[in-house]
Amino acid sequence: MNPLVAPEPFVHGGRTALSVNLNKVALLRNTRHLGIPSVTRAASFVLEAGAAGITVHPRPDERHIRAGDVRELAELLKAWPHAEYNIEGNPFHNLMDFVREVKPHQCTFVPDGVGQFTSDHGWNLPADAERLRPVIAEAKALGVRVSLFMDPQPEAMRHAAELGADRVELYTESYAHAHGKSEGAEVLQRFVRAAEAAIAAGLGVNAGHDLNRDNLTDFLRAVPGVQEVSIGHALIADALELGYAETVRDYQRCIQRAYA
């Protein structure tokens, strides 16, 4: 088993854990050949500010996170025994190579196409079940927790559990798009029902994609049992204005308000 695997549930003080996705830091770095901004320095800054973990999504074209970043972050996190390392991506592309080598705390399986602009849908269960079954089993045999990136479809949660997944990550773009609009309450209820179904099936619940300081608290107040949120684009954009430390503290305040 992976000695770095954190016990369930991986939450701080009973609250949702904040994992910072560093892809956009790497994307900016890759526009020049100077090595700045540093992905590992960014990781250090957000962890020092209180982030619970680090997320990366190394795509095959390395347009942002590169293989070297995955390894360097794994080395860095040895100095942060209470922080979690989440590597996400398509297990049928390059993800499993990193899972075998690095053995992160968690791997999040995402059904991205090669060259896809950004993640935009979850797994189709049960249609994808037989493809996913062996890679889920392999990751778990390595001691790595498995989360499946899923649309908010309550009926699919039982299938995810039957495959042996430990958690689902609810794909929250539709919630973020509807937040503050007339359809917002109805869309949010889809996530409430999906989370309830996941918990009933014995799954942990993560969430991510387009969550930000404006919509995070409302989401966590409504959706039960969210153990981890993975936030990258909005958080790094905020950090350009506020700095890493203040941004992480502000996201943590958003989480705290949800539990007030």
Structural features, described:
By secondary structure, the chain is of the alpha/beta class. It has a single domain (17-258), classed as Aldolase class I (TIM Barrel). The chain is 43% helix and 16% strand. The chain contains 11 helices and 8 strands. The chain has helices spanning 23-29, 39-48, 67-76, 95-102, 129-141, 154-162, 173-178, 184-200, 216-222, 233-242, 244-258; strands at residues 17-21, 53-56, 84-89, 106-109, 145-150, 167-171, 204-208, 226-231. It has an 8-stranded parallel barrel with strand order 1-2-3-4-5-6-7-8, surrounded by 8 helices. The longest helix is centred in the last third of the chain and has 17 residues, at 184-200. It is globular and about 50 Å long. The N and C termini lie far apart (37 Å). Residues 1-12 have low confidence and may be disordered.
Q: What share of residues are in beta strands?
A: 15-25%
Order of helices and strands: EHHEHEHEHEHEHHEHEHH
Can you tell me the CATH architecture? Answer: Alpha-Beta Barrel
CATH class: Alpha Beta
Name the CATH superfamily assignment: Aldolase class I
Low-confidence stretches: 1-12
The chain-level mean pLDDT equals: 93
Globally, the shape reads: globular
Q: What is the number of E strands?
A: 8
Helix content: 40-55%
